[in-house]
Amino acid sequence: MARLNGKVAIITGAAGGQGAAAARRFVAEGARVLLADVADETGAAVAAELGAAARYRHLDVGTAADWAAAVRVAEQEFGPVSVLVNNAGILHLAPIAETDPADYERVLRTNQLGTFLGMRAVLSSMPGGGSIVNVSSVEGLAGMPGTIAYSASKFAIRGMTKVAALELGARGIRVNSVHPGVIDTDMVRAAAGTALHGFAKSRLALGRLGRAEEIAELVLFLASDESSYCTGAEFVADGGATAAHSLAP
Ligand code: NAI
Known about the structure:
By secondary structure, this protein is an alpha/beta fold. 44% of the residues lie in helices and 15% in strands.
């Protein structure tokens, strides 16, 4: 039997990268999926490729009204929402002294406020329980210079996940965070070009960048009933990045 049969999912940031990979995997496993993003053209194209089990909806995750409308559309098209993947995210790289407060707020608005608004918006649509997957990062587990805003948002997601798990467990809603390492998507290509391939080869236990499809497998597990006893937990998929400390040669 398909692993997400009968599930209705909202996936944010689903126009590309890890979100699109998760949407493809979810539909292949029997879910009906509302793909949400601000990149409307590419998002609609991914949804069209997935056929009747998928719809696209414009959703800026930092805007509460967009969330209310997206949940309504998901319910009208497919029924009550059982899975939310808070995947949309943006990266801003700059040292603290050169981080403009407006950029700091922009990152927190999408990554942190967006995750909060998403969890809040789906609650009324999950009367029978559900699974919320919040995409954090290895930057939500440890620090890296030049990521002050991004790291603040990703640590926040890790903490909010635990609060939500504790509040929502009695309602049958599980909430977990995912912590990818360096994944070969537009986000990383835009920030570092191909330079990270050499870095990954020499520094990571697995010697390579991760693929969006590999994170989708983890998100699928957390969305499915196979993870029925997992909540409030951190799931790392980083090729061994956080296995080392800074004294490692
Ligand atoms: P990506 O840049 O390919 O995809 C991000 C998607 O989010 C894009 O489609 C973009 O249009 C969308 N988005 C941006 N702002 C939005 C908003 N306000 N509302 C709705 N959608 C919005 O990057 P990727 O790698 O697929 O990122 C997915 C998640 O994984 C993000 O939360 C990112 O922070 C996280 N992550 C990525 C890592 C990587 O190495 N690529 C590592 C660790 C975490």
